[in-house]
Specification:
- The protein is an alpha+beta fold.
- The chain has one domain (about 5-190, about 200-330): Muramoyl-pentapeptide Carboxypeptidase, domain 2.
- Helices cover about 40% and strands about 10% of the residues.
- The chain contains 13 helices and eight strands.
- The protein has helices spanning about 5-10, 20-30, 40-45, 55-60, 95-105, 120-140, 140-145, 150-155, 165-175, 215-230, 240-255, 260-265, 300-310; strands spanning about 10-15, 115, 205, 210-215, 235, 280-285, 315, 325-330.
- The strands form three sheets. The chain has a four-stranded antiparallel sheet, with helices on one face. A two-stranded antiparallel ribbon has the order 1-2. A two-stranded antiparallel sheet has the order 3-4.
- The longest helix has 18 residues, at about 120-140.
- The chain is globular and about 50 Å long.
- The termini are far apart.
- The structure holds zinc ion.
- Zinc ion binds near residues 48 and 275.
Length: about 325
């Protein structure tokens, strides 16, 4: 299949609409599959929280209607040509204001948000559930490291997972290769190939966390932070493979009713996560889902971290990645 031609029809822009009521109707209308879902707190069930992260078929259908107030926003037209990326620096004042409003209200719906073509919703759901079966089979810890080829192999080898069908593989590839600028994510691509993986010899298992860190700089930085801040600090997510990030992103897209812009404001699309090259997330033991909210920045532990001088966060407020403020996400140089 011609990838570029397929891509052209893959994403669809929402029409410009101001006012919550119309948007709300539009969302329901767009997502008949997801329309009758009960309300859940997006930060309790999904987010980036991984320790207790497991989707079941029922949870996957429990998509919450959008939260937050839909704000009228000037429409930014991102480049759809991967060779001419959208430059935030070139925006005029109104566009910058709109951009900042979006990352501050990351869970709100904006008129210019880009949606997955609703025709792909059943495929989105089926593929995500398939990945959930893989994760269930090999366990959360190992799933963090799983490569694309291993994923396919497991599907072939284990009947409880099932072979990945051609349409699912195409879908996964299209999500991986699509230019995320078109839905408002501006972070750079970390992994060029979908088959890129992290060799097991390069990672260290971090006890009591179910997560891994790259040996060397990441592991040393984590240990240093724990030493300086205390044992209240815990690794909440370390190395994440493309497959792991794909699963998180697709689940996020479901949760956002197909709104890819909203999904990518709080989770990097697969291939774009710095978790693939050594970044990691930390939290405070006992702080639960709040570790993945701005509240973490108000803890004594974070205040200490901020004063250490050697710790940098990847997504500060007003960052140019198109991503919300993430005080928990530690940047590797
Ligand atoms: Zn992170």
């Amino acid at each position: 299949m011609n990838k570029r031609a397929f891509l052209e029809g893959f994403f669809t822009a929402s029409t410009v609409a101001f006012g919550g009521h119309f948007m709300w109707q539009r969302i329901n209308q767009q997502s008949p599959l997801l329309a009758s879902a009960p309300i859940i707190d997006p930060r309790s069930a999904a987010g980036e929280s991984l320790a207790s992260f497991q989707f079941t078929a029922i949870e996957l259908k429990s998509v919450q209607p959008a939260t937050g107030i839909p704000l009228p926003a000037p429409v930014i037209t991102p480049s759809t040509n991967p060779n001419t990326p959208f430059e935030v620096a070139e925006l005029d004042e109104a566009q910058v204001e709109s951009y900042l409003r979006k990352i501050k209200n990351f869970d709100a719906i904006f008129a210019s948000d880009i949606y997955l073509d609703p025709r792909y919703e059943p495929l989105l759901l089926r593929t995500t559930q398939h990945l959930s079966r893989v994760e269930k089979h090999i366990g959360h810890g190992n799933f963090n490291l799983m490569s694309f080829d291993e994923m396919l192999q497991h599907g072939r080898d284990f009947s409880q997972i099932g072979k990945f069908e051609a349409d699912e593989m195409n879908f996964i590839e299209e999500v991986f290769f699509a230019n995320p600028h078109r839905y408002g994510f501006f972070g750079k691509k970390i992994s060029a190939e979908i088959t890129d993986f992290i060799p097991r010899n390069d990672v260290a298992k971090i006890s009591n966390t179910g997560h891994f860190l790259l040996k060397g700089e990441s592991e040393a930085l984590y240990n240093q932070i724990k030493k300086d801040v205390g044992n209240e600090i815990i690794l909440t997510s370390g190395v994440r493979s493309i497959v792991k990030q794909m699963h998180l992103f697709l689940a996020k897209a479901i949760e956002a009713n197909g709104n890819l812009s909203r999904a990518s404001r709080s989770l990097a699309p697969p291939g774009h996560s710095y978790h693939g090259i050594g970044d990691f997330d930390i939290g405070k033991i006992g702080y639960g889902a709040k570790n993945f909210t701005a509240d973490f920045s108000r803890t004594a532990e974070y205040q200490k971290i901020a004063k250490l001088g050697y710790v940098d966060i990847r997504y500060p407020t007003d960052n140019l990645f198109g991503v919300r403020f993430e005080p928990w996400h530690i940047k590797i140089a």
